[in-house]
Structure formats: structure tokens, C-alpha cells
Amino acid sequence: MIFEKIRKIISSHTGLDKNNINLDSNIVDDLELDSIEIFDILSEIEGEFSIEIDEDSYEDFKTIKDIVEYIENTI
């Protein structure tokens, strides 16, 4: 459920086919997102899940799985 929502957000922001976004996708290397795109996506994820992501955690997010696990541990 969390993964599906994140995948939809990323797809809508980037135009990437959501079928090409998986848990092991590297945010920078595989999805080719820059820091501004990542910030925008994480801001939308915060709104979607009614959470606040500590900005220090942004650098810890290497894969989609990292984001999913952070949210699972937060909500």
C-alpha cells in the first residue's frame, strides 16, 4: 500500500512508467532524479501520509525501499 502510493507520486512527478519503479530502484542512478525532484516528491509524500520527514533523513534515502521503511517506522 505504501509502496503503491509512493510509486504513483513518483510517476506523476516524473512521467516515469510506474511499472519501471520498484522497491530496489535507486533514486538517483535508476530513476535519475535530481535534488529538486527528490525534495518535491518527498514533500508530496509527507502530505500523502501526514508525516514530516526530517531533512537529515533525505540523504539516507538511496532506494525506494528506504523511503517505504522510513514511512512504515513513522506511521
From TrEMBL:
Its main location: cytoplasm. It is found in: Cytoplasm. Keywords: Cytoplasm, Fatty acid biosynthesis, Fatty acid metabolism, Lipid biosynthesis, Lipid metabolism, Phosphopantetheine, Phosphoprotein. One of its GO terms (biological process) is lipid A biosynthetic process. It comes from the Bacteria. GO terms for cellular component: cytosol; membrane. InterPro entries: ACP, ACP-like_sf, PP-bd_ACP. GO terms for molecular function: acyl binding; acyl carrier activity. 4'-phosphopantetheine is transferred from CoA to a specific serine of apo-ACP by AcpS. This modification is essential for activity because fatty acids are bound in thioester linkage to the sulfhydryl of the prosthetic group. PROSITE patterns: CARRIER. Residues 1-75 form the Carrier domain. Transmembrane segments: none annotated. The modification O-(pantetheine 4'-phosphoryl)serine is found at residue 35. SUPFAM superfamilies: ACP-like. Pathway: Lipid metabolism; fatty acid biosynthesis. Belongs to the acyl carrier protein (ACP) family. Carrier of the growing fatty acid chain in fatty acid biosynthesis. NCBIfam families: PRK00982.1-4. This is Acyl carrier protein. The lineage of its organism: Bacteria, Bacillati, Bacillota, Clostridia, Peptostreptococcales.
